[in-house]
Design brief:
By secondary structure, this protein is α+β, with helices and mostly antiparallel strands. It contains four helices and ten strands, in the order βαβββαβββαββαβ. The protein has one domain: Alpha-Beta Plaits (2-Layer Sandwich), CATH 3.30.70.560.
């Protein structure tokens, strides 16, 4: 089993319910076992700012799947929840976005997957939830809490538990 860190987000419909469903679909308890889940956070839209706020969270899982297979599972879950990557606006509204942030200490650079995620340390909407569950984890030589200390977290709000 390998530890993987995954960021989830969405801003279409009941995003919190959709993301809970995404975790249930992704983490089957066999190939992918959920080991930690952050709180839900309301976050300002990034990239395309004229859209509703997002809900973001992070999970840690143990998996037997190879990185590309884990990515494929995430994309299948996105599709099952209504995401159409081929026909959407880049950084636009989406029901579910599932990003593989890290897979153990694997460094990978393929056309389909780069590990660790190339922008993980630049995006507060990834770092805030990630730091809640794995603040001392080092990704690509950078400690999560240290990366968080360098970004602007304005507008990010922890949502109350449901």
């Amino acid at each position: 089993m390998t530890e993987a860190l995954i960021a989830l987000g969405g801003n279409v419909g009941d995003a919190r319910a959709t993301l809970n469903r995404a975790i249930s679909l992704l983490c089957d308890g066999t190939d992918i076992k959920l080991t930690a889940r952050s709180s839900d956070y309301a976050t300002p839209p990034w990239g395309v700012t004229d859209q509703p706020a997002f809900v973001n969270l992070a999970i840690a899982v143990e998996t037997t799947l190879a990185p590309l297979d884990l990515l494929a599972r995430g994309h299948a879950v996105e599709r099952a929840l209504g995401r159409d990557r081929a026909n959407e606006q880049r950084w636009g509204p989406r029901p579910a976005d599932i990003d593989l942030i890290a897979y153990g200490d694997v460094a990978l650079d393929t056309p389909d997957l780069k590990l660790p995620h190339p922008f993980w340390a630049e995006r507060a909407f990834v770092l805030v939830p990630l730091a809640e569950i794995v603040p001392d984890r080092t990704i690509g030589g950078v400690r999560v809490a240290d990366a968080l200390a360098k970004v602007d977290v304005s507008g990010i709000e922890r949502l109350p538990a449901r």
